[in-house]
Amino acid sequence: MTGRVGRWTGVKKEVVIMLYVLSQTVGCYAANQLPSSDVQQNGMSDNMLNNQRVVVHKDDISEHAEKSQSMVYVKRFQLDVSGIEECLPPPKALLGKYSGRNLAVNDLQQLTKALSVYYRKQGYPVATAFLPRQDIVAGIVTIKVFPGVLDKLRVKNSTSLEDRFVEGFLKNLYAGMQLRSDILEMTLNNLNALPGVQAKGILEPGDKIGSSSLTIVLEASPIVEGAVYTDNYGGKYSGRYRYGMQVIVNEPLRSGDRLVIGGMLSNEKMKNYNLGYETAVNRTGGRLGISCAESDYTLGDYFTQAGAVGTAKTVSLYGSQPLSGRKSGNLRLIYGYEHNRLNDELRVFDYTARKSSDVFHLGLTGSLKSAVSYSGYSAVLRAGNLKLRSWEAQAADEFSRTEGGFSRFNFDVNHVSKLSKVTQFYIFAHGQLANRNLDSSEQFYLGGADAVRAYPQGEAGGDSGYQATAELRYQTPVKGMSMTLFADVGEVLARKDGDTSDPHRRLAGWGIGAVYSLDRSLYARLDYARKIKGESYRSEAEDKNGRLWFRLYKLF
Q1: In 3-state terms, what secondary structure has residue 161?
Q2: For residue 118, is it left (φ>0), alpha (ψ between -120 and 50) or beta?
Q3: pLDDT at res. 501
Q4: Contacts (Cβ under 8 Å, ≥6 apart) of 478
Q5: Which of 204, 188, 249 is nearest to 49 (CA)?
Q6: 60-67 and 105-121 helices cross at what angle (nearest 10)?
Q7: What are the record keywords, sorted (predicted)?
Q8: What SS3 state is found at 410?
Q9: Is residue 143 a contact partner of residue 129, using CB atoms and an 8 Å limit?
Q10: CB 250: neighbour CB atoms within 10 A?
């Protein structure tokens, strides 16, 4: 089954836990990641950036204006922006508003303040515009814009990280440098990406005119975090009801590392285990990790008579590297390799199908943020090779022809807009494009709690496809309680070679739901979905017009 990127890409500590919780089931009964409506902050507030001393000189212009009944004629303005990027366009509309007329001292001061705000929004958080001493010639007035420099850098570290380790992340910050938002925000993002660390920056006026002092504050999160959960997001034959736990140990070696241990059980004796470790590999936010997972399942219902059991084992190496990191958005390179071994047995018939695959992936993931919206996205290319290791697997593959090399491209987009104080609108979309027939473990599925909710988990598998959801969410007067109205749709295309049957399926549904979140420690969700156009189930014998889904988890 295709691995879905979380609907919500930002990511606070509880979201990290959720991602580990929801990524451990393999095969067509895998659970997808749950979105979060929290918008990740970079630790530096606007007040911190803008709380600067702005120096406006009392100059000859002011004196001349006072002598001329506080008015001076300005034909046009000339900006002195030395130290600021030349490619940054001047605010012509703003300057034009004040050009070609008589201006009072207050008008000039309003203009310098507006210019300061403009250049701060362009990435110079302490930029200051002022009127230097000058002689006015032919109505031309010069305004100087000083970008601002770093005076002193201080670090307050209350975490378990060693100071010299933290200092490696601050190499781009030094006394005398120009203060730029991209450098400050990237540094804070890289620090916040460390497990068990919450970083923020505080800017204060420096000892010199036009300078600022920066204090980096590092606070520790709990060393041990985790979650226990239950849901009915599983498949009918592998176990619809699931119970699990994930535990995260932050900074076990005090080097920006994390240890993850987890497990899950289902009501049909399906068992999942996972163990992972990752650490920082550079001081620019790069990370490497290794993980292993195993799933043992026994299929229930009428599969019980055939003795249907199986195992899936996965070992993964993965890494990531930030390419950009701003309060308004970020971009990260992701890459990795995984080795999979799959065994499916029908013990009554002494049947064992053994398969293995080696898969590499490379992609990008990022986000865009504003005051009223958030967008997350990812694009990942996967290329691998499937080997059939038993005659039973080879016989079953004569028709589907999945053995050998394959590639697939996966994309994921999510967006949330704030419509009012109590309403939000969500859009989720993800899809897959494959170059050939795929094994069921690599296919894209439409049905499930995180897809078309009117259909069961594992319904409508295919090699290529898409799925999209639109959801309106209303926050009720009850604290933490929201009501939802949603619509889901998706299409898949399967068996492009050697099959004369219809390879195309389209599913759609709509429904209502409720979400309850208490102090970011307790989360519950309930969804009821019904079909649109009523296509029958093919993954389960008993067809239904509606489905009820629930999820409950507790963070600790």
Answers
A1: coil
A2: alpha
A3: 57
A4: none
A5: 204
A6: 150
A7: Cell outer membrane, Membrane, Transmembrane, Transmembrane beta strand
A8: strand
A9: yes
A10: 23
pLDDT digits (tens, 9 = 90+) for 496-554: 655 545 689 999 999 999 999 988 789 999 999 999 988 899 988 889 999 999 999 99
- Out of 53-62, 70-79, 113-122, 514-523, pick the least confident: 53-62
What's the CATH number where 56 sits?
3.10.20.310
Task: Produce one character per residue of 379-413: b if its CB has 16 or more CB atoms within 10 Å, e if not.
Answer: bbebebebebeeebbeebbeebebbeebebbbbbb
Note if the pTM is more than 0.85: no
Model confidence pLDDT, tens digit, residues 380-389: 999 999 999 9
DSSP H helical segments within 168-215, as ranges? Answer: 181-192
Tokens describing residue 80: 């002195």
Query: For a pLDDT cut of 70, what percent of the chain falls above it?
Result: 85
Q: Would you give the end-to-end CA distance of the chain in angstroms? A: 30
Rounded to an integer, what distance in angstroms lies between the CA atom of residue 539 and that of residue 455?
A: 9
Please state whether beta strands 404-418 and 423-434 pair in parallel, antiparallel, or not at all (unpaired): antiparallel
> Is the torsion defined by CA of 105, 109, 114, 118 positive or negative?
positive
Contacts of 439 (CB under 8 A, 6+ apart): 355, 357, 386, 402
Q: Supply the pLDDT for residue 496.
A: 62
Same domain, residue pair 280 and 136: no
498 phi/psi in degrees, rounded to 5: 75, 20
d(CA 379, CA 362): 9
Same domain (yes/no): 228, 216: no
> Which residues pair with residue 332 across a beta bridge?
322, 365
% the chain with pLDDT above 90: 65
In a domain, 3, yes or no: no
Within a domain: residue 1?
Answer: no
What is the residue-averaged pLDDT of the chain? 85
Is residue 441 predicted with pLDDT exceeding 70? yes
Residue-range definition of the domain harbouring residue 173: 149-220
Token pair for 411: 């994309």
Sequential DSSP letters for 440-456: GGG-EE-BSTTSBTTS-
- What's the CA gap between 464 and 445, in Å, rounded? 9
For residue 33, which of 24, 42, 41 has the smallest C-alpha distance? 24
Short-list 521, 505, 495, CA closest to 467:
505
Min mean pLDDT across 77-91, 140-154, 394-408 is at 77-91
Contacts of 45 (CB under 8 A, 6+ apart): 200
CA dihedral 297, 299, 304, 305 (to 10 degrees): -100
Q: Same structural domain for residues 361 and 396?
A: yes
Instruction: Say whether pLDDT at 15 is over 60.
Output: no
**Phi and psi angles of residue 441, each rounded to the nearest 5 degrees, phi first:** -70, -15
**Whole-angstrom Cα distance, residue 456 to residue 471?**
20
Number of structural domains the chain divides into:
3
pLDDT 10s digits, 343-362: 998 888 888 999 999 999 99
pLDDT in tens, 170-198: 999 999 899 999 999 999 999 999 999 99
Residue 198: both structure tokens together: 């919450």
Tokens 């790069």 belong to 286
